[in-house]
Sequence to fold (275 residues):
Amino acid sequence: MKKACVIGYPIGHSRSPIIHNYWLKKYGLEGSYEKREVKPEDLAGFLTSLPSHGYVGCNVTIPHKEAAIPLMGQVDDIVRRTGSLNTVYLDSGIISATSSDGEGFYQNLMSVAAPKLDGGIAVVLGAGGSARALIERLLRTGLARVKIVNRTEARARELADLFGPKVEIGRFGGESKETALLVNTTSQGMKGQPALDVDLSSLPSACVVADIVYVPLKTDLLKQAEARGLKTVGGLGMLLHQAVVGFEKWFGVRPEVTQELYDLVAKDVDLEYGR
Fold:
């Protein structure tokens, strides 16, 4: 029986087991997926002996996404470009890694809102690991440029230098009519965190507003965007779509993200969902 897990420290909040065990049952596969709390000092020992723990792979979450890279036998171009990983798997016995965060965001974005990105501008709030993953994927579309807005200019400058001339740093406000997408990659607006203070009045009517936060399911940013009549994309769908890559690598079936799965996880996030 194939077995996979998600590792992090802490790990109690993870909804990944709900997603993967749902797919295992749906596709009639023998396997399991569980949470494993792994402290930073235990990370190397755990990952380098993954098969001896009985695992065919794992998801990697905070705070291990960067620290795990030098422990891999091989990584793909996405990991090299973003400096982050979230999916570990065995490739001919070699411990390998990719990052599906960017692809998960993109697939969710297109399935929910399908914005016209060609020739447009994306405004990214934040300059952390999630911003790196999203920018890397967005730059593989037809966007003309990406603007990073971050409280610390030095962090934003790192990303602009990393990704090249299509990425610039700036302030939010007075957005041009070419702005096709605004996405929040910070933790602001998350339950227990300060609210995200932005004024959306300068965004054009065709702009899509996305948030990678999924607790709450609908953040104040998304509510504000809806009040302006803008299309919105919540963060829970990104979590579901990023899980597709790992499941296929571990269990050999490419799973489908369905409304039934979304509802299942949404009810775990918010007990009032659907009532």
The domain at 2-99+237-269 is CATH 3.40.50.10860 (Rossmann fold).
